[in-house]
# Entry
Amino acid sequence: QEGTGAQDGAFTRQHYMDPISPVMLGVVIILIAAKIGGELARKFNQPAVLGELMVGIFLGNTVFFTGWGFAEFLQENPFLDYMGRFGALILLCRVGIETDVAAMMESRVSAFFVAVAGVIAPCVLGYPITLYLLPDIHPHTRLIIITALCATSVGITTRVFEDLGKLQMPEARIVLGAAIFDDVLGLLILSVVTSVITTGSFALGSMFNIAVYAAVFLSIAAVVSLKFTHVIGEYISRFHAEGMKMVFAVSTCFLLAYVADDIGLAPIVGA
# Structure
């Protein structure tokens, strides 16, 4: 009887586990840890996103910090990665909803020059720094590092302004506009670097295509948002199905994110 009981107990412990269970546990850990980190950052008069980032660094490197890899599954689960990507799209969509497009367009010249400076500075400073820290790497590797330094995290930028309650400031609009220009410029530089590394020559056609696609996409998005948003909103308001506005907003966000990615821009630019 004791043997049978042990077998029954073993069978009970080896029951089928739903694949979503680790995802749910991961979301719980991430959400609670992020909120604790955000609250600690606020106590030091810092943006909450700074504390969230610090907690994320800790969770992603628990083996390094503690020698205990209890959070390694957070790195390895692809569903958590997908959810994080969706979260970034929703964040940028919400910021876009709160952004005055007309006011941001007025700052486009300043935003462009800020973006150009934000690309040139990492390129100019990145070369001697990589030469000093990594003197023996291949020149192609050095180019890739310099290109990576040109990237701007518009998600983090917007969260900082949002946490500080400064999202409507002129400076915030300039930085948000610069982040969009920066993404386009970064893609142009990436196309040049990729061409040089793979073929050994400079492909002007690829760079031109990216610039044209980006300009057309951003122009259409700006015109639609300025001229037709109220008409679309009134039309959607006629529907009485529950959650229709929310479904339309989220679907529009994901559709524009998909189109942006398809033409070579970052999905968050579309969002």
